[in-house]
Amino acid sequence: MRLILLRHAKSEKAAPGMSDRERTLNPRGRKDITLIGAYLGRHGLVPELAAVSPAQRTRETWERLIEAFASPPPVVFDERLYNARGEAIVAAIKKIGGDTSSLLVIGHNPGLHDCARLLIASGDVEARERLNEGLPTSGLVVVDFAAESWGKLHAHGGRLEHFVSPRMLTEAGRV
What we know:
The chain has six helices and seven strands. By secondary structure, the protein is an alpha/beta fold. Helix 3 packs across helix 4. The longest helix has 16 residues. The protein is globular. The chain starts with a strand and ends with a helix. The model has no long low-confidence stretch (mean pLDDT 95).
């Protein structure tokens, strides 16, 4: 099974009186998510299902990301992903994943970062160390599992396969 975790793209600061859920992507966020979409497409990282927090910035991230897929996967907007803690995201994944073999989750920090760190046990040491430092906006984490179903997902059961951010891609000249 493959889990693709994506932190929403960079968003505007909340204007006075604006709720956190209403925040939209800023120009940098729109540009960054295009880079990540290209990376997903180039590496054949197309999920069977996407689960997205219902906040405006995560919805916009999803809408821009699907431009990279020839055939976008079905999507569910799940309230359990909005500003959830790492353990709550894992619990949601167990229920949302169904019988798919690959799932994309678009959410928020610090929960998404905590979720990644909770699930990863192995993989490239340098990439794991970079991930431990933080998950930036538009940060992408791909974790593979030997488990047979999402319901059997457990802490430290995954292998980190990819960890990239728009900045890493730009610095490496992979844009």
